[in-house]
Prior knowledge:
By secondary structure, the protein is an alpha/beta fold.
Amino acid sequence: MTKTNFVHCKCKFIRWHMVTLKQLAKELGVSISTVSKALNNSEEIGEETVKRVKQLAEQYNYTPNKVALSLKQSKTKTIGVIIPNILNRFLAKVLFGIEREANKHGYNIITCISNESLEKEKEALKLLANGSVDGFVLSVAEETQVNNEIAHFKNTINQGLPIVMFDRVAHDVMCDKVIVDDFDATYNATKSLLNENRIRIAFISDINGLSVGKLRERGYNKAMLESRCEPLVLAVKKKDDHQKKIKAFFKKNRNIDGVIAADSSSGIIALNTAINMGLKVPKDVSVIAFASKSDSYHTLPKLTTIRQHAKIIGAQAAQMLIRRLQNPSVIEDVKTKIVKTSLVKNKSTL
């Protein structure tokens, strides 16, 4: 037999876990509407009444039934967030930006991890689209991009659930997007090495299958071809031993005098490989990588980085979705916001 706790007040017993607005109103001798407005700090209700209502609500440990509210309002005030890899520092920071911005507007988030899997991404969308969230903020899984699968995104939008994509996006899906200037950032970074009189600049990437990786490589190629320098590209696959692959690449191309890395791990490994092979950084080789401020602390010399401002990306993605959710009757064309990167020069470049 289970034990039930009771609260005694004015000779009445109310089960603690069953307190409702109706019971509070009856206890106080006011209407249900008055109790509701008082709990929401409505200016229509006098200060003394608000105080009485909140005191009794606190005494009974009353909390509003969020499920009932969401059914009544047809809103959950919850955003579904799907990211490909929680261990990725950039994506973790974007998630932080999303959550912080959502909270400012009274929204909660539910986060799912696709682990770069198309099927897991589909499952997450299906699960959360079943009345759990009002819309989605997501970054596309690698398998999804490689297979060019977009039907599950379109189906979700057709259900009336808006999607905002960030960083890795599906360009054929009509939804709001937040991206960085991947092409221009890599183009400008390559130009900065060319201005150091580097002529054998390599491009190293382990994200060549992703949209962002392809854009970064194109930016590099454009800068090299404009300067009449031969592009030198190393694409590292997931199954490869990252360090061995880059070391073999350096041994094969001993005259490399610059490196542009599309990701932080490639940049850090390239810098350490150059030093281990007896090269001086940046005297013999300059290295730039897409990486965070904290990544640069793990190299000696300190790595020059292309900063993507992850928290800003997250905040803007959340803002775009919330604007859609708060103005459902306003029909606006989908937009793509471009967040400008910053080239932060450190000791790995001249």
